[in-house]
Amino acid sequence: MANIEKQRAIIDFTLAALLRRKGKNAALLAVYTLVVTALASVMFFTKSIRSEAAAVLADAPELVVQRMVAGRHEMIPLSYVEKISSIRGIRSVRGRLWGYYYDQVFGSNYTMLVPQEFALGDGNAAVGAGVARVALAEVGNIMPFRTYQGELFTLTVAQVLPDNTELVSSDLVLLSAADFRTMFGVPDGMATDLVAEVVNPAEIPTIAAKIVKMFPDTRPIARDEILRTYEAVFSWRSGILLTILSGALMAFFIFAWDKATGLSAEERKEIGILKAIGWDVGDVLMMKLWEGAALSLTAFLTGVILAWLHVFAGGAALFAPVMKGWSVLYPSFRLTPAIDFMQLAILFFLTVIPYTVATIVPCWRAATAAPDSVMRG
């Protein structure tokens, strides 16, 4: 109990000392908090967008088969379906029709897709919320397109896809197979690619090897490979931001080290008085340890809270364009909170521990000197 009372007294004195130098400490706390907020925002956004991508790709095809000609993706004959279906371990195979269309009027790219079941009929389309915003398309409106031959082709907007699907449907235009073939000139019996469902996901590499052996001009792509590609893209983009912010982090380290290691005359006099009235070296070091911990922990917790609000309440307005990519059709969606505690722990040890330790070094030098010499400077 005596030790607890002693620590409480030291903490009370430390807080009073911090308030006496509130100008210096407020400036340090503001810079400290901004650095932690920026770094934590990048970590939160990266982790959350990775989780969103993983959730979206959970329903993606287990295996996509593309046909390659001269190293580029080409249309694949539907005659491949029957032979690939005969491979043991494959549950079903079907062809897909999809592609991209550039709208010269609005300067945006649309993803044109024929769904497996399209009940709206020929001449109609279902568009994503991003397409509806950019093209000012509402249900009942007519959207003009140009076919591969340059002829005018129109589709009636029969449906606008729900907002809660905007992460994957923002630039999407769903249409019938007949309209797709008319627009892009895809002949019957050809598809953009094939999608296969397998009985045992562990056999996907073996099945992919059999497909390549059967059709050497094909390239099977597993769902896990697509997910790893997204992981690499988001890691690369977050790395760009962290590299840019590393300059600010280094500047903060220099600033914090200068503030922590440079004791003012008032602080030296204070340490000398404490030694003169009976404080030992351990008590003085404990006081400075509590002072550094109070500043660094306050800045860290405040920065993490501000980063949380910035990313999950404010939509990560500062970093979203870089992390999402550059596009006219930015999807509008609210991120699901996801935290990587390992990254938070690394951020803690990079920001809190160095500053807390740095405050002890100059204090130890002053505390081990004679009280009268410290007070005389």
Give the key terms.
single chain, 377 residues, alpha+beta, 10-stranded mixed beta sheet, 14 helices, 12 strands
Describe this structure in words.
The protein is of the alpha+beta class and 377 residues long. 56% of the residues lie in helices and 18% in strands. The chain has 14 helices and twelve strands. Strands 1, 2, 4, 5, 6, 7, 8, 9, 11 and 12 form a ten-stranded mixed sheet that branches. Strands 3-10 form a two-stranded antiparallel sheet.
Helix content: 55-70%
- Class from secondary-structure proportions: alpha+beta
Give the overall shape, derived from the CA principal axes.
elongated
Largest sheet properties: 10 strands, mixed
Instruction: Show unreliable segments.
Output: none
Q: Helix and strand string, N-terminal first?
A: HHEEEHEEEHEEHEHEEHEHHHHHHH
Q: What share of the residues does DSSP label as strand, in percent?
A: 15-25%
User: Using DSSP, what is the number of strands?
Assistant: 12
User: Distance between termini?
Assistant: 37 Å
Summarize the entry for a quick read.
By secondary structure, the chain is α+β, with helices and mostly antiparallel strands. It has helices spanning 2-20, 22-57, 80-85, 129-134, 166-169, 177-184, 204-214, 223-261, 265-276, 281-313, 320-324, 341-358, 360-367, 371-376; strands at residues 63-69, 72-74, 76-77, 90-103, 108-114, 124-127, 142-146, 152-160, 172-174, 190-191, 193-198, 218-222. It is built from 14 helices and 12 strands.
Ordered list of secondary-structure elements with their pairings:
Layout: H1 2-20, H2 22-57, E1 63-69, E2 72-74, E3 76-77, H3 80-85, E4 90-103, E5 108-114, E6 124-127, H4 129-134, E7 142-146, E8 152-160, H5 166-169, E9 172-174, H6 177-184, E10 190-191, E11 193-198, H7 204-214, E12 218-222, H8 223-261, H9 265-276, H10 281-313, H11 320-324, H12 341-358, H13 360-367, H14 371-376
Parallel strand pairs: 5-9, 6-8
Antiparallel strand pairs: 1-2, 1-11, 1-12, 3-10, 4-5, 4-11, 6-9, 7-8
Helix pairs in contact: 1-10, 2-8, 2-10, 2-12, 8-12, 10-12, 10-13
